[in-house]
Design a protein that fits this description.
Blueprint: H1 2-20, H2 27-34, H3 38-45, H4 48-74, H5 79-96, H6 98-107, H7 113-139, H8 148-164, H9 166-173, H10 180-196
Helix pairs in contact: 1-2, 1-6, 2-3, 3-4, 4-5, 4-7, 5-7, 5-10, 6-8
Length: 206
């Protein structure tokens, strides 16, 4: 029961954060949307900041677990194959937690303590793992050598844009990130991009 109540509060909070903004959302509004007494928000999370922290930790712990578990399952495959499997698993995870991903990725664009903490823990670990895989793929001759930071920049952009730019996608491009068709097409496009890394090309020097 307690777990269900906490999840209801977090679900209500992220929906409101995405519509009225974090600063414009009150604890009372969260409680009302979740159908609980405002005292329960304080009981489980202390305050709105505590709620945001738990929501962030829960999302990124699950995100990193998906990444690490895929590494364990696919560890014997080639590095580029592992990268593809990891990317697909993370895309699935993001879609399953679309509203939370949308809010947290937007928060990461701000210079806040939360953004810095996430960047120095979860995102730094993700960068390390992808860097190791990319360098291994180059060393094994699976892909041409591109500067890792720029490869990471393109990869992360493609993974995050559906959540950072939802209004642009829906109102300008008329594609809808919440639909399964979009999810499958987006995966195919990302897979196509990853496969281009295998093609023969001159190394890029910067």
């Amino acid at each position: 029961m307690a777990r269900e109540t906490k999840e209801a509060i977090m679900d209500a909070a992220v929906q409101l954060f995405n519509t009225t903004g974090y600063g414009g959302t009150s604890v009372r509004a969260i409680a009302q949307k979740a159908g609980v007494n405002p005292a329960l928000v304080s009981y489980y999370f202390k305050n709105k900041e505590g709620l945001l922290e738990e929501m962030s930790v829960s999302y990124f712990e699950g995100y990193m677990s998906s990444l690490v578990n895929t590494l364990k399952e696919e560890g014997e495959a080639g590095a580029l194959t592992v990268i593809r499997k990891v990317v697909f698993r993370l895309l699935d995870y993001q879609r399953e937690h679309a509203e939370t991903a949308r809010f947290l990725y937007r928060e990461l664009t701000l210079d806040t303590m939360l953004a810095r903490e996430i960047a120095t823990t979860y995102l730094a670990k993700e960068k390390y793992i992808f860097t190791q895989l990319l360098e291994e793929a180059v060393a094994n001759g699976e892909m041409v050598q591109f500067p890792v930071p720029y490869t990471m920049m393109q990869l992360k952009t493609m993974m995050m844009v559906p959540y950072l730019q939802k209004h642009y996608l829906t109102n300008v491009l008329f594609v809808f990130p919440h639909e399964m068709y979009f999810h499958k097409t987006h995966r195919q496009q990302l897979d196509y991009w990853l496969k281009q890394l295998k093609k023969e090309a001159s190394p890029v020097h910067i």
